[in-house]
Amino acid sequence: MAALETPICEFGLPAVDFSLQGVDGKTRTLNDCAGGNGLLVMFICNHCPFVKAVIDRIVGDVSSLEKYGIKSVAIMPNDPDDYPDDSFDNMKRVSDKHNFTFPYLIDESQKIAEGYGAVCTPDFFGYNADLQLQYRGRLDESGKNPAKPGVRLGRLGSE
Fold first, then answer.
1. Which phi and psi angles does 152 have, rounded to 5°?
2. How many Cβ atoms from other residues are within 10 Å of residue 151's Cβ?
3. What pLDDT, on a 0 to 100 scale, did the predictor assign at position 138?
4. If you ran DSSP here, which 8-state letter would residue 150 be given?
5. Which residues contact 77 (CB under 8 A, 6 or more apart)?
6. Burial category of 73 from C-beta neighbours within 10 Å (exposed 0-12, middle 13-18, buried 19 and up)
7. Per-residue pLDDT tens for 13-58?
8. Over the stretch 58-83, which tens digit does the pLDDT of each residue have?
9. Cα dihedral sign for 105, 73, 133, 150?
10. The pTM is what?
11. Can you tell me the distance from the alpha carbon of 15 to that of 40, in angstroms, rounded to the nearest whole number?
């Protein structure tokens, strides 16, 4: 996952189904994770400096989206043999440290990331109530640097 730019969004593409183990010991599917008004699928990992720069904002934005009936799921797509910081035990630590309120799942085979076309971390896929793609891209343009205080996903920060 070394790419820095995400491809252009292909609106309307259906979400890719999955069945992946979470750090809470539960196996989750696409339908388990979906909210009544949509789903945010996030490909993140523990070692990525871009993820580290925005992880607390991600947690806050997920809470804001839940108020609108949009649930979220994070999927870790890296091979822990290549990236030891992304081991399942470290995923649990990161989830606990940042108080994840959303499932954090491991994609050991990387087939789900490939199915979505994820090319980097973090990589966001926003789906509507029919699980059709409505957004694809980054959280913002902050890169490795934390964004200014108060910056939130889309218009949610203005509330």
1. -130, 170
2. 14
3. 72
4. T
5. 1, 43, 45, 107, 110, 112, 113, 118, 121
6. buried
7. 999 999 999 999 999 999 999 999 999 999 999 999 999 999 999 9
8. 999 999 999 999 999 999 999 999 99
9. negative
10. 0.85
11. 10
